[in-house]
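Lab notebook page, bench 4
Experiment: in silico fold of construct C2
Operator: M.H.
Input chain length: 331 residues
Purpose: comparison with the prior construct
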Amino acid sequence: MSGRALITGASGFIGYHLIEAAQKAGLEVHAAVRPSSDVSHLAPLSPVFVYPDYRSTDALRSFLEERNYQYIIHSAGATRAKDSAAYNLINAEYTRRLAEAACQISQPLERFVFMSSLAALGPLSYTDRQPITENTSPKPVTNYGKSKLLAEYYLSEIKGLKTSIIRPTAVYGPREKDLFIVFKTLSSGIDAYIGRNPQRFSFVYVKDLADATVKATLHKSASNHTFNISDGGSYNRYELAEIFNAWSGKKPFRIHIPLRLMKIVATALETGYTFSKNTPVINQEKLKELTAQNWFCSIDAAQAHLGYQPEYDLKRGILETLTWYQSNRWL
């Protein structure tokens, strides 16, 4: 396999693994990053660094025209933002501009792959026995999920562009920083949960996600497709901690924090960040995701159309991740 691929969001956690998987598939990778991004961890991969300007469709068209890409994997986006307008600008409007520019160049793309999220569909009730599928009626519960759904809608309106939409569930692996907070908390001796209601979670190890994404990129179908991506499993709320405890030999103290109290904490944190460009780790948006009842999703479509077969279940993936954290002195 040969060809040139633009990977946006390349300096991020998922971006690193996308570059690695694309290069293994024989693609020449151009890594789209911000001039201010720390790219030192990408040095061993030696991609070509590029700096597209998402503020202008015309600028993007000129940028793409000069470089003759066959594939675009658009994984850049905001997972934290101050409000819905900021989410929509970065996750939806920038996606629309890049896709429109890709349709206007003289050399048509082979495929435009958009890294969406299972949050675009939203969770199910715990009592639902059927998993989330690609055809589940979207009911996103966060502004982040709504912005990803809006981006998907924009892509559906652009004619003449072969697209694949990837909707990963919770992604973890080496270099991931959000779930890492859970491991740090467990390591400190606290096993904390919000409320006592039962929950179903799904996860995907980042290497499996990268593999599925590259498979979708190189897929030869002329049709557009959407794929939910997880490891295929359904996990209760305690399994993550149980894997960590077995690995570490520790026995953290388990506590259940009332949701009402966490909402007060989230509100206070958001107030404290009013004049900061950053957003707190715990906020009202994050609480909606963390306390949702059921994120179990089907991967039948990806298995049937892409030949996707996840190599990592939660236990294997978490153990490899924890080993990386320990080797790199994160834990």
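Observations: Residues 4-176+202-234+295-313 form a domain with the Rossmann fold fold (CATH 3.40.50.720). The CA atoms of residues 185 and 191 lie 7 Å apart.
Next step: discuss at group meeting.
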